[in-house]
């Protein structure tokens, strides 16, 4: 929705009220979930523990100690990293070297931004997916047939000087603190990608040359930060904070707060990710699945709503520059391992998500090559 639509007569229609976001809705008083947010029973998080839609509590994500990657145990940690990426598509990263100060300033700014009056946040509301700053709600705001219980602020972050002047100037210090956090997470992402390439056998040790080394391209790559805000929901069993989806990009580095909500799809069940203070939840994105030719898989995850507390998370999504092509690494293609995905780029992704309601891993599935469709997809 454009800011101009808000405040006009049009904006009083319920559909338009919903476009203002769930925080706005909750602030205006609400005792039940409006119909537009109610999922069909088969998609609800549910309460029956026999149901595969209900999370099992006794499973935990692998934990990777980043500081050990830099020491004599690097080879063992690379093996754990490979196991985590292959088996779960997710891990928690501890001892990552980003200081508690940087993290707590980021949390502080996220909270303060969503504490701003609606009129202040409204300035950044747009449905233009390529806007450097975008405030919105739900998952795919204009396409979702059922809305979900989340508001967000998306910020393009790299190259920073191109985007920083567009970022919100309020709250005070927002630009400074969020820029510091963006730079630190970017550096961490690059270090993780180096380790991941090594774990895939694409580079060895500190080798940086070679035509298949995408590290240099990633250094100029895209970074998008998403601050997610989930206000309390009066009937959390009927809706979701975010529907099952996989992330665009190579890796997502997610900072969650102490309020549970994130669930990962694992062996046909949902497992709740236990918050670890100041750790990053890292997950494989669609582009890494393509680049690894399917060895590492992007994994479905969703967010539960809850009736008691606000929940805030910060996701940092990283990929190649928007004008680059993502393709399986030639080093992972041979006679026994044919190329499994068509080349893709940001325009292909945008065209896909702007023309339909994004569901689960549909975009990635559309890039999969089968013997029948290889030629057809290669030319798209
Ligand atoms: O809020 C969360 O824990 C997850 C957010 C997420 O999946 C995303 O931003 O893509
Ligand atoms: Fe996600």
From TrEMBL:
Regarding protein family, the annotation reads: Belongs to the iron/ascorbate-dependent oxidoreductase family.
Q: InterPro entries under this entry?
A: DIOX_N, IPNS-like_FE2OG_OXY, IPNS-like_sf, Oxoglu/Fe-dep_dioxygenase_dom, Plant_2OG-oxidoreductases
Top-rank taxon: Eukaryota
What does this gene product do?
A: Involved in the regulation of shoot development and salicylic acid (SA) homeostasis.
Instruction: Record the organism.
Output: Vigna angularis var. angularis
State the UniProt keywords alphabetically. Cytoplasm, Iron, Metal-binding, Nucleus, Oxidoreductase, Vitamin C
> Which protein, by its recorded name, is this?
Fe2OG dioxygenase domain-containing protein
Of the GO CC terms on this record, one is: nucleus
